[in-house]
Write a structure and sequence with these properties.
Radius of gyration: 22 Å
Low-confidence stretches: 1-6
Strand order of the largest sheet: 1-2-3
Number of strands: 3
Helix content: 40-55%
Bound molecules: tryptophanyl-5'AMP
Order of helices and strands: HEHEHHEHHHHHHHHHHHH
Distance between the termini: 36 Å
Mean pLDDT: 94
Largest sheet: 3 strands, parallel
Shape: globular
Length: about 375
């Protein structure tokens, strides 16, 4: 029995129940270094010590209307990338969000406790609405503009209720830890708020509050190579795990820099800071120190910095790329992994949904 529990990965060797970890990535295209360092590399590092459930968020991807022919391929890409990065299907529950219909039902129920005002104030919603409607104003004005919008452009309700669905992903597993990048922290804050609200409304301490996890460090924000902001698919500044050597080197060599320091100990500009941040993630500490010192004494050559950076990124990505290409063609293996994952995920999800229905007063007559 004890052995079986260890194999299930729910109990640690000393018999304690492991903490539950839950995270997911939207099926909107290949994974980039932001996804890798903000999320996936942590998923892999956590798989031995926690009871981990990782999924592909295909329902969340629908909020931005993917080509129906591409959605399934995108899901498959991410599954292959999860496995290629080192997630072991025997240690983790790996599943596709839409394979767990309990999530959709609980999303409907949870929406009854979520305010449209708080959803409209979410930064990610404002961002997407701004882009969809071509709105330029900041702050509270955006909400008025969205409501008053008379054009043919629409911001769909799925985008508005995106944080409810994310909260349900997490709460349906009673997750303790949610490894995500910095950009997802507001969603996590909302999840905690919805959990507290549910508990206090029904006067039952049913949900606990989940937190981000980064091995004791701050949440990660991986910058892009274009001089400002974060690496992201919609920013078009990504280095992908699947990039081949030539493409990757080219992207790094084209990274935005500045004219170089003119005096010793000059302040470091944003584009160069970004390159140092990337280097901190992929290179040896001594390499980063070398280039920081070279910056400080004005001997730095950005060409050398970029060459070294590309080299060190490739050390991580090339072996993953090879495994992706291999796994991506193995439909049978991928199906087996997600079938097994869906079964396990649905066990917990069905139990939580039954509890939530009961707490909210939904009972059957037959
Ligand atoms: P998504 O698909 O946008 O991103 C997936 C993960 O990658 C991280 N990430 C980054 N981290 C650091 N620097 C970057 N430049 C960067 N870009 C992306 C994100 O923080 C995230 O961890 N809403 C989620 C998906 C989701 C989810 C969930 C996550 C749905 N339900 C439940 C956790 C738990 C999203 O859109 O992530």
């Amino acid at each position: 029995m004890e052995n079986k529990e260890i194999k299930d990965n729910k109990t640690s060797e000393n018999g304690d129940k492991k903490k539950v970890v839950l995270s997911g990535i939207r099926a909107t295209g290949n994974l980039h270094l932001g996804n890798y360092y903000g999320a996936l590399s942590k998923f892999v590092r956590m798989q031995d010590d926690y009871d981990c459930r990782y999924f592909v968020a295909d329902l969340h991807a629908l909020t931005t209307h993917p080509d129906p022919k591409m959605l399934h391929e995108n899901v498959k890409d991410i599954l292959a990338e999860y496995l290629a990065a080192g997630l072991d299907p025997d240690k983790n529950t790996i599943y596709v969000q839409s394979d767990v219909p309990e999530i959709s039902e609980m999303y409907l129920l949870m929406n009854m406790h979520v305010g449209i005002g708080e959803l409209m104030r979410t930064a990610s919603f404002k961002d997407k609405a701004r882009k969809a409607l071509g709105i330029h104003s900041e702050g509270d004005e955006i909400e008025k503009e969205i409501i008053g919008n008379q054009t043919n452009q629409r911001v769909n309700a799925g985008l508005l209720t995106y944080p409810t669905l994310m909260a349900v992903d997490i709460l349906i597993h009673h997750a303790d830890l949610v490894p995500v990048g910095k950009d997802q922290e507001q969603h996590l804050e909302l999840t905690r708020r919805f959990a507290r609200r549910f508990n206090s409304f029904y006067k039952t301490p049913y949900f606990s509050e989940p937190f981000n996890f980064n091995f004791g460090g701050e949440a990660v924000k991986v910058p892009g190579l274009d001089g400002s902001g974060k690496m992201g698919k919609s920013e078009g500044n990504c280095i992908y795990l699947i990039d081949d050597e030539k493409t990757l080197r080219k992207k790094v060599m084209r990274a935005v820099t500045d004219e170089g320091p003119k005096e010793p100990d000059s302040p470091v500009s944003e584009p160069i800071k970004n390159l140092f941040t990337l280097m901190e993630l992929v290179s040896e500490p001594s390499t980063l120190e070398h280039f920081k010192n070279a910056y400080a004494d004005c001997s730095i050559r950005y060409g050398d910095l970029k060459k070294q950076l590309a080299e060190d990124i490739l050390k991580t990505t090339l072996p993953i790329r090879e495994r992706i290409l291999d796994i991506r063609n193995n439909d049978e293996y991928i199906s087996k992994v997600v079938r097994q994952g869906a079964e396990k995920a649905r066990e917990t999800a069905a139990k939580t949904l039954a509890d939530v229905r009961e707490i909210m007063g939904i009972r059957k007559f037959y």
